[in-house]
What we know:
Layout lengths: L2 H10 L4 H4 L9 H9 L8 E6 L4 H14 L4 E4 L11 E3 L2 E2 L2 H13 L8 H15 L4 E5 L16 E4 L7 H4 L3 H8 L9 E3 L4 H14 L3 E3 H4 L2 E7 L2 E6 L4 E4 L6 H17 L6 H9 L1 H5 L6 E4 L3 E4 L5 H13 L5 E5 L8 H6 L5 E5 L9 H9 L5 E4 L2 H11 L5 E5 L2 H14 L1
Parallel strand pairs: 1-5, 1-6, 2-5, 6-7, 7-8, 13-17, 14-15, 14-17, 15-16
Antiparallel strand pairs: 2-3, 3-4, 9-10, 10-11, 12-13
Helix pairs in contact: 1-5, 3-6, 4-11, 4-12, 5-6, 8-9
Amino acid sequence: MNYKETIDFLFTQVPMFQRIGGQAYKPGLHTTRALDDLFGNPHRAFRTIHVGGTNGKGSTSHTLASILQLSGYRVGLYTSPHLLDFRERIRVNGEMIPEECVVDFVERYRRSGFEGEPSFFELSTIMAFDYFRSAGVDIAVIEVGLGGRLDCTNIITPLLSIITNISFDHTQFLGDTLPAIAREKAGIIKPGVPVVIGEAEGEVREVFAEKAALKGSTIAFACEDEGLLTCEGENGNLRLKTRDFDTLEYELCGDCQKKNAATILTALPLLRKAGLNLPQDAIAGGFARVCEISGLMGRWMTVASHPTVICDTGHNTGGFAYIARQLRRVECTALRIVIGFVSDKDVSHILEMLPQCATYYFTRASVPRAMDCHTLAGLAAAKGLHGRSYPTVAQAYNEALKESATTDFIYVGGSTFVVADLLALLKAAK
């Protein structure tokens, strides 16, 4: 197979959560371990950092990878989902896995006669580990796919585990209370491996503390660490005054990034204690150039000006608590919101957060899971949000652009897949 045929195989022949949702979810580690054995246990060839949580995993993972790379390490980065290219998920020193390596791995898998029926994510995970081994990485930052305890990335034993926060998402798999979700996320805590918790209070905090005690793991709560002294927006970035690392400029500027920064700042001394050499200039550069170094996209990302166009991959109640607050602070002539969701998500609480003073362009992303735009418009109308429906992101965005003055503000989001469609549209237009 060539690369296109290989990707088609991965996207259509292997159950893929990104496209079809719950039908592709396969909890448990049996198949992952069998695949790992088949390929000679590649995950044992390098050190790892494991990053879980409901929101902020991607920003945290990319920033840590950037810091490690500037510190002189050869760094693997495994994240999900991708926006434009499958290969975004698997990077070494910011560079995507080559097409020929994707083809080679899938051909080896198909020739192996493997008797199980792996999911897309199980295959992708072992592909990443196999590539990291062959590329000779020193350390890999591994982002949890879904949950933690039963996520297939959980075969690793890392130097450090990080759990950013807990919010309601994927409740059909992880539980319908925050403590239940926390118990699933806490499944990445390993015996004797220190863990950093970004945000936690009440019963959720107790879940993490009890799990860490049971595993004999030291636990640090970033919300109590006070490593981040102040955080202010400046010239489109965040200016972080820190206790241990002087003043840092953070390229990511969304409201949620203050919490992510605090989590990273709590993790860095623990990584140094684990034996990693992380110079001050590498830490400063990793924060300041995270998108450039790691390839991160879609985090309160400015894609156009006059009118200003921002996209963001936040897609659950925890993420929109920050996004809605930022939208209300925007200074513009008119606020226009291009928005769509997946059909297996309860969006009622998100819609309640959104500003009623905006003009809405309800749309549908180009994946089977996407919610019908007319259905979304009906749900939104019940919450006092009004606008028109468009069957594609391109149509919705172009109409918003057509109706905008240069001083207007357009936000595009709701779903990762809406952002992916927008970025694909803008790339094609170049």
